[in-house]
Amino acid sequence: MIERYLDKAQALADAQLPDDALLPFLIAYRQADLLIAKGKRDEAIVMLEQSVAMIDAALNFDSPLEQQMRIRLVKLYEHTDQPEKVTAQCVALGKLVPRSDNIEQVPLYRISPSLHNIYWSKNTSIHAQFDITAQGTVSNIEILNVDGSKRLVKPFVEALKKWRYAPKFEDGVPVTAKSTIQMDFKFTKA
Asked: By C-alpha distance, which of 171, 107, 175, 75 is closest to 135?
């Protein structure tokens, strides 16, 4: 039922609104959400890619909707193992206007550590430093401190390697930047 309403709304918007109206893009974004919910990631990717290309062509400014579409594409590309496309979207996100020439990196995609078959018996904090590359990937992870179980370090590092960022920009150019994080794991008895 939702699908029919979205399709009808899209047809009406396409027929009656100017090319630079945002509503058709918002409808496409929601249609992509529906495709994702149905497990049709590849179709959602095509829809979002087309929508981002049309937004770029139709609008003379960067909209929050374009940002949301690109963030959704980052997540979809991660789930479909397309790292080169993840990188391209991270860099594009960093360049969206209104942005200054000098901006800090922004997290786009984070996953939690997989703790399957990892046993620990006390609360643990892991403090790490890492680089965020000009492509928005995480590299050079250095564990600064572990307060608690060291068994959690490996899954923490494996998850951190998969995080994605809009990179830091200096003078309009993406650059590698240092970042730190503290992740806390709370132990609860089953």
From this structure: 175
